[in-house]
Amino acid sequence: MAARLLEGKFFAAEIKKSVYIEVENFKKNQGITPGLAVIIVGENAASKVYVANKHKACEELGIYSEVIRMAETISKQELLEQIASLNKNTAIHGILLQLPLPEALRNDEAELLKAIHPDKDVDGFHPVNVGKLATGQEHLVPCTPAGCIKILELANIEIAGKHAVIIGRSNIVGKPMANLLLARHATVTICHSRTVDLPSITSQADILIVAIGKAHFVTKDMVKPGAVVIDVGINRLADKKLVGDVNFEEVKEVAGAITPVPGGVGLLTIAMLLSNTVKAAVLQHNTKNS
Ligand code: NAD
Fold it and tell me: Which of 3, 12, 62, 271 gives 258 a disulfide partner, CB atoms 3.0 to 4.6 angstroms apart?
């Protein structure tokens, strides 16, 4: 039996529709246009595409967007000064530092992310926001796992009481995903590269979230019949084709529902960034007036 296809475009459109209304209302009632600044350092080709897509999506929804391009040779200090200036800029409500940073700045990543004011941290990577999520006080939440939750919620897939298994324990996907699912009362198991007998665990999952970065890694024997499979992975094959971490063609025959790659989770990530930008603008406005 073929699985229900969870196409990202429908869910992303729904989120964008409500963000658009929020932006319009905020402009009308408060006279404020939500603003996002994206800092891109160096010439990473994939990052340039992502940043251009974010800018275009902001324009479509009436969000002010500024792309700050910095040379690969920039120092940590100069970058910190740029972030400090954006923290003070009242036209900017969200700041995103596009990752990955060039090799020379890689070791400074945590310090640079921490320099972004937590209320403007639309990526949800600041330790304050990580801590809030871990303690059940969701604030600005990382966009990709937040998008996965939106897919489940908008598709009316029950989370409470279900066994959710996540493959991958990164700070940007796996760990926040676990906290978001826990907060929605799932029983959560996190698997990773040192997990022993992975298939015996994944095949117990009612909801299987896969964020590894290995093409076609999850095969049908690893999936419980009827499970909901959310594929976060983005992998480019030698022939340039984009595929996920799940072997879509065979897993769709056993899963109850599945996200495709491309056309799945990726579309939600940008929608959630826009949603976080408006959330940040409203939050900053309320804090200023409280
Ligand atoms: P990462 O490299 O930081 O983490 C990968 C995780 O996979 C690690 O925790 C590791 O333990 C685990 N892993 C690796 N090999 C494994 C194995 N054999 N068995 C079990 N676990 C294994 O990656 P990430 O940043 O979390 O990204 C994961 C994937 O998701 C990548 O393909 C990335 O491109 C994609 N991604 C997509 C979006 C989106 O918008 N759709 C956003 C972020 C990441």
Answer: 3
